[in-house]
Amino acid sequence: MVSCGVSIALALSSAFCSAANLLTQRQSSRAEGGSFWRIAAYLLRSPLWLIGAGAAVAAFAFQAVALHLGRLSVVQPVLVTELVFVLVLRRIWLREQVKTMAWSSAALTTVSLAVFLVAAEPRGGNPSPTAGAWVGVLAAFGGATAVLTTLAARGSPPRRAALYATASAIVGGVEASFIKTAADTFATHGLQVMLEHWPIYALLLSAIVDIVLVQAALHVGPLRISQPLMVVVNPLVSIGLSVWLFEEYFTSDTVAVLVAACSFAAMVIGVVLQALTGPSQQINHAPAAATP
Questions:
Q1: What is the pLDDT of residue 235?
Q2: Which of 33, 78, 135, 198 is the right S-S partner for 11, CB 3.0 to 4.6 Å?
C-alpha cells in the first residue's frame, strides 16, 4: 500500500512537470520569431525555455521511478491528471479565464480516476516479462501503429488527426513498458547491465516515433480531436500491457469491476469535455521572463 501511494505521488509529480513543460515551452517559443537557428539560439538563452526543459527531464525521471516502484496499470492512468494541472497553471500563471464547465470536467476526470483506482484494485505483477510476451506485444501493437499511420496518410483533417493521435498513444503505452523494464533493470543490476539489454534502445526508438506521430497529429488536424485521444488511449493500452506483459491483475468482484469500468468511462468523458471547454489552445501573450 505504501509503495502504491508513493508511485501515485510520483506519477502526479510527473504529470505536473509535464504540464509545466508544455506551457513554458509554448510560451517561450512564441516570444521570438525569425529563422530556425535564430529561434534555437534564443531559446537556449531563455530562462523560461530552460525551466521547461528541466521540467521535461523531471517528468521523465518521476515517471521512471513511479513505474519502477508501482504498476503500469496505476501510473499511466494517473498521468491523465496532466490536463488538470495544465488548466490550473493556465488560470494561476497565465491568468486565463476558465469556464465553470472546464473546472467541472477537470473535477469529473479527477474523481473518476480516483474511483477507478480504488474499485479496480490493481495488484500482482512480474517485473520480468517473457520473450514470448514481448514478441506478441511488439507484433500486435507495432502492427496496429503501422496500420493507423498508413490510414492517416489520407482523409479529412479530423480523421487524420484522430488516426495519428491514436497511433501515438499506442506507441506511448508501449514506450511506458520499455521505461518500466529499463528502470527495473537499472535499479536491480546497474547502468552497465541496462545498456547491455535491448529495452533501453527500444525506448529511445519508440520515443522518437512517438514525437513524430504527435507532431503529425498536431499538424494535420485540430487539437480538440487529437488531445483527448492521446490522453485516453494511452492508459487503455497501458492497462492491456500491464496484464499481458507484467501479469498484473484486478479485483474479481463483479460489482467492483463494473464500478471501475463506469469510472473509467466517466474519466474519458471528463477528458473530452475538458478539451472542448478549456481555454483556447492559442496563447496570445508571454510572461516577462520570456522577453529577450
A1: 93
A2: 78
**Grid cell for residue 161:** 488527426
The proportion of the chain whose per-residue pLDDT surpasses 70, expressed as a percent, equals 88
Q: Which helix (H) or strand (E) holds 109?
A: helix 100-120
Distance (Å, whole) CA 194 – CA 79 = 25
Distances in Å between the alpha carbon of 31 and those of 17, 22, 44, 286, 292?
21, 15, 13, 6, 8
Query: φ, ψ for residue 124 (rounded to 5)?
Result: 75, -165
Strand extents, DSSP E, the chain? 123-124, 248-249
Inter-residue contact 251 to 119 (CB < 8 Å): yes
Mean pLDDT within 113-118: 96
pLDDT at 215 over 90: no
Record the cell numbers describing residue 134, joined without a space. 514481448
- Average pLDDT in the 119-144 region? 93
Biggest CA pair distance of the chain: 60
- The C-alpha cell 543490476 sits at 189
Cβ-count burial 269-286 (b if 16+ within 10 Å, e if not): bbbbbbbebbbeeeeeeb
